[in-house]
Design brief:
The protein has about 160 residues and is an all-alpha fold. The protein has one domain. The chain contains five helices and no strands.
Length: about 160
């Protein structure tokens, strides 16, 4: 009984730690829009590297969480891990720990949705920036070709 309670507590703690990590990722990524807008691609690359490292850590949490979930699935003979199934299968004396897991997961969901939206906006901004830059280069190249075609010399 104590071992399962520890697993449930460890799972809730892992979700809480993962939440802190995702909040940090969101914080790091919040400045990307300005860097893209201002054309600071070198600084953007630094931010992306930092986010990549944080995402790697998040992946490690996912592995830890997955392992804990598997252990709970096995112990409670669940088809797969889900909080509703866990609540039904676990004796009432685990409900406090399960409530902590539910709270952690419910806190994670909006943060993950926000991160997804932030990434979508950042990708869109970067695409627009690159299209604009490519368009400027294309226009300059066309002007040079036109000047050569009409006999003007490059200065």
């Amino acid at each position: 009984m104590r071992e399962i309670r520890d697993k449930l507590c460890e799972l809730a703690a892992a979700y809480d730690e993962q939440l802190q990590l995702y909040n940090r990722i969101e914080e790091v990524g919040s400045g990307e829009q300005k860097l893209i807008r201002d054309g600071h691609l070198d600084l953007l690359l630094q931010v992306l590297k930092e986010k990549e490292e944080l995402l790697k850590q998040a992946g490690e949490y996912e592995q830890r969480i997955g392992s804990l979930q598997e252990q709970l699935v096995e112990h409670f003979a669940l088809a797969h891990f889900s909080l509703p199934q866990l609540k039904l299968a676990a004796p009432s004396y685990y409900q406090e720990e399960i409530a902590a897991i539910e709270k952690a997961v419910s806190s994670l969901v909006p943060v993950l949705e926000g991160l997804e939206e932030q990434e979508r906006r950042n990708e869109q901004s970067l695409s627009q920036y690159l299209e604009t830059r490519q368009g400027t280069r294309t226009k300059k190249a066309q002007i040079r070709l036109a000047e050569r075609a009409y006999g003007k010399k490059d200065l």
